[in-house]
Amino acid sequence: MDSISIIIPSYNSSETIPATLDNIFKLNNVDTVKEVIVVDSSDDKKTKPFLNNYSNPKVKIITSGVRVMPAIQRNIGAREASGDILAFIDSDAYPDKNWVAFILETIKEQTVMGGGSYLLPEFQHDNKVAIAQYYLQFNEFLPAGDIRQKAFFPSCNIFCKKEFFDEMGGFPEVRASEDTLFCLNAGKKTELVFNPQAKVYHIFRTDRKAFLRNQKMLGKFVLVYRKDFYKSFIYKGIMPLLTIPVITLIKLARLRSRITQAGKWHRKMLRKSLGTFFVGLTYWSFGYVSGIKGVKK
Questions:
Q1: How far apart are CA 59 and CA 258, in angstroms?
Q2: Are 95 and 36 in contact (CB under 8 A)?
């Protein structure tokens, strides 16, 4: 049976990474987890002491020295990994108890790369900001439907053969959307398999201002990566400004379809945060248009 290296980028994560690590070691099939590599660049006074005192021989802490982008942290962790399969999760997420079992079910024979679904932690079910983020960022990756192909996965629930990851050269070292770019490039060489049973719980920020800043940043980098990857005229010049109403309508139509498929509970949850959701979508749209100027190298 293949062994798994779990890789976690961390920055000032003292409030969330305890749940990440503790739930990893509560996994069914935890014996297949060869190592857990945390690449930390924290500058607070809590995270490093917690990590240094975490008592489990499978946990390996790598300190990056200065704050670096998550993409760089993941690549550092991957270089140090010795497992057959790399499983990426973030320090503000934690796995369902059967996560590893479904990773092993997915990565076999000709399948070398996959991703899983996302759940909202129960303690955030009444937080409108958290709910809005969940459906803005992960509506395409709800735990519903059959195993199927997808074009990309978010980086906090990606898994692949280490050999294939090395062949691809790792994540592009950019501020955001590195996961999408990595997947789109990987998709040129292999099928990307989505297993909705490989579930991860994502802990969302609850500060409204931080939420809106993040949505604006995410929107900006969506346009940045599309300009670089697709080379289409619709992402050049002022075209993003002209097409953003259509893009927004397409996003809403797809959301409606996915929520309908996922069931009544998801419809109820989205209605609970609908106002906050639309404010977040507006900020995402502002960010998308701001991507016209690109980013400084």
A1: 37
A2: no
User: Among residues of the chain, what percentage have pLDDT more than 90?
Assistant: 81
Q: Does domain 4-202 have CATH number 3.90.550.10?
A: yes
CA distance 94 to 5: 15
Residues facing residue 35 across a β-bridge: 5
Sequence-distant (6+) residues with CB within 8 A of 178 are 69, 70, 71, 155, 171, 172
Report if pTM > 0.85: yes
Residue 294 pLDDT > 90: no
Strand 33-40 and strand 4-10: the pairing is: parallel
Place of tokens 């990606």: 158
Q: Is 142 in contact with 258 (CB distance < 8 Å)?
A: yes
Picking from 171, 183, 104, the residue whose alpha carbon sits closest to that of residue 141 is 183
What are the residue ranges spanned by the domains of the chain?
Answer: 4-202, 208-293
Paired tokens of 186: 């990987």
Using CA atoms, how far apart are residues 267 and 276, in angstroms rounded to an integer?
15
If one counts every other C-beta atom within 10 angstroms of the C-beta of residue 82, the result is 11
